[in-house]
Design brief:
Layout: H1 37-40, H2 47-58, H3 67-71, H4 78-90, E1 94-100, E2 106-112, H5 116-120, H6 162-169, H7 171-174, H8 182-197, H9 202-210, H10 221-231, E3 253-255, E4 262-264, H11 272-276, H12 278-284
Antiparallel strand pairs: 1-2, 3-4
Helix pairs in contact: 2-4, 6-8, 8-10
């Protein structure tokens, strides 16, 4: 019999990672977009925000990137897309400002930045933002023009919305699953203020957000509360109706038969003073 030698263990193949991803890369010569790893591997952005940023950076200039136009392309829906756009604004990848045209129409100007730290001239990319401070300088507040309904795009300043901030921070007392981060409180405060400005008491807003909670775990409490604040927003109270001005023509000017004093009345006669005087009463008797 021929003696069989034991087979040698398989030799590792250089460049392969059996427990992780393997890359098969081919160079692109056309139809490609250069994206930085600071975006693709961002430690704070959600996958929805990262994917949306890559899509926006691949679009030609002038392409519509509003919430409704993006929701018509992708299955995420307007709420998730609006939240992703706010994430990109917070970390400097997107800037949206309202501008009034000469015709009086108000439009939103959107600027996509593929390298925010170059735009803001920061020295280094922070691993995590400092609590309570945005990672990039925030421009001055944008005043909404009349006629523009903006609920989720208002300036999220917790100091200006103490009632909304306290309401959101206290939701965890009712249910620990509604624990929000400081960033989530700043982001949702304008939506709560929209309820308060429409005459809804804070207790009613709190009851709406905490009533009928699902039995299963709430993995994303901020998205859950934002959906309720947006979909259940009540209409504004009707404006108080003021009585219409009296457009009737005034009575003509008459001359008093007793004192020749001019007064207004529908027909000739005596003025009020002459009618109420004792002498006039004796004459009438």
């Amino acid at each position: 019999m021929t003696e069989q030698k034991p087979s040698a263990p398989p030799r590792p193949v250089s460049g392969r990672h059996p427990r992780g991803v393997e890359h098969e890369n081919h160079p692109h010569h056309d139809h490609f977009t250069v994206v930085g790893n600071h975006l693709l591997q961002h430690p704070e952005l959600s996958l929805t925000a990262i994917g949306l940023a890559v899509h926006i950076q691949s679009l030609p200039a002038g392409s519509p990137v509003g919430i409704k136009s993006l929701a018509g392309k992708f299955p995420e829906g307007e709420i998730r897309i609006a939240a992703a756009l706010r994430e990109l604004e917070e970390y400097g990848y997107l800037a949206r400002t309202k501008e009034r045209l000469q015709s009086g129409r108000v439009v939103t100007r959107t600027v996509s930045r593929n390298k925010p730290r170059a735009a803001f001239a920061t020295a280094a990319w922070p691993a995590r933002p400092v609590a309570g401070e945005p990672p990039f300088p925030v421009p001055g507040p944008v005043v909404d023009a009349p006629g523009v309904d903006s609920v989720t795009e208002q300036a999220a300043d917790p100091a200006a919305n103490p009632v909304a901030t306290a309401l959101l921070a206290g939701l965890r007392v009712h249910d620990s699953r509604l624990l929000l981060t400081e960033r989530d409180v700043r982001r949702l405060a304008p939506a709560v203020m929209a309820w308060l400005e429409r005459g809804v008491p804070p207790t009613a807003v709190e009851r709406t957000l905490t009533a009928g909670l699902p039995q299963e775990p709430i993995r994303h409490p901020a998205a859950f509360l934002e959906r309720r604040l947006t979909s259940d927003l009540p209409p504004a109270l009707p404006a108080s109706r003021t009585p219409a001005p009296d457009l009737r023509r005034p009575d003509p000017v008459q001359t008093c038969d007793g004192c020749d004093w001019a007064f207004r009345a529908s027909r000739p006669g005596r003025c009020r003073d002459c009618r109420e005087s004792p002498l006039s009463a004796q004459v009438a008797a």
